[in-house]
Amino acid sequence: MTHILIKLLYCLLISITAFATSVLAETTNPQYRYAAQLFESGDYQAARLAYKRLLFYDPDTEFRDIADYRIAQTYYYQNDATRAEGLFREFPAIHPNSPLRFQSQLMLGQLHFDAAEYSQARSSLFELLHASTEPEVVDAAHYLRGWCYIHTTDWNKAISELRQVNTSQMGVFREKKASELADTLLEETPLPSKSPQVAGWLSTVVPGSGQLYVGKVKEGVLAAALSGTFIYLAVDAIRDRRYIDCAGISLVGWQFYWGNRTDAQQLASEYNKHHEQAFIETLKRQAESVRRQ
Q1: For a 10 Å CB count at each end of the chain, is N or C smaller?
Q2: In 132-242, where does DSSP find H-type helix?
Q3: Same-domain pairing of 105 and 71
Q4: Are residues 115 and 225 in the same domain?
Q5: pTM as predicted
Q6: DSSP state of 152
Q7: Do 57 and 81 fall into the same domain?
Q8: How many CA atoms lie within 13 A of 93 on its CB side?
Q9: Does the N-terminal peptide bond of residue 30 adopt cis geometry, omega within 30 degrees of 0?
Q10: CA 187, chain centre distance (Å)
C-alpha cells in the first residue's frame, strides 16, 4: 500500500514540470499531444510508442527531454523496473540542462524504495538534496527518506526527515502528511519491546519463563513441563542406578533445555518485529487517510 501511495504522490509531483513545459507543445505539436493524451489516459505502452515515434521523426524536437522522461515513466508504471532505472540513470547525462533531471534522480530513489533497498534509496536521495534547490523535489526527497527510515525502524531519523518537508504551493497535502506522521512517531516511539537476551536468560534459569515474559503462556507452560519431565526421569534413573539411561535422558533433555532458551529468544524477536510491522501499517493507513482528505 505504501508503494502505491507514494507512486500516486510522485505521479502528481513529477507531472508538474512536464505539464508546465508541455502546454505550448500540446497546441503546436499534434504528435506530442497524441502521446501525452495516451500517457494521461494510462495507456503506457501506446504512449511509449507514440513518444518514440515523435523522437524518430523529429530527433531535434525541443520536447525531447519530456519524451525521454515519459518513456522512462511508462516502463516504471508497467513495473519494468530494470528498464526504467536504466533510462532514469541515463537521463541527466543526456539532458544535463533539463528541469526534469532532478525528477529522474528522485525516481531512482523511488525505484530503490520500491525494491526495499532502503539504504541505496537514502543515498540516492541524499545526493539529490545536495544537487537540487527546487522546493517540490527537496520536499519529496525528504518525505521519501523519512519512509526509508520508517521501514528500517529508525524512528528518530524518520522524524527528522519528515520535519524538513515544508509547505509549498503544490505540496500542502504532503506537508500535512509529513507533519502528522512525524507527530505520531514522536508520540508512539519507542515501541514496547521484549529483549531477546532477557528472554534467553530467563529460560536458562527457569525453563519456560522466557516464553512467559514474551506473553506466550502456552509455549512457556509446555517448555516448563518438558524440562520438568526430563529432570524427573533423569533423577529417577540415578536413584535406580540406571546410569546409562540417565545419560541418554540427560542428552535428549539437554537438547530440549537449550532449545527452550533459543525459542524464547526467537519469540522475543518475533514479538518486536510484529509490533514494528503493525505500527508501520498504521502509519501507512494514516498517510492514506490524509491524502484522501
Answers
A1: C
A2: 135-151, 155-163, 172-188, 196-205, 209-214, 217-239
A3: yes
A4: no
A5: 0.78
A6: T
A7: yes
A8: 5
A9: no
A10: 21
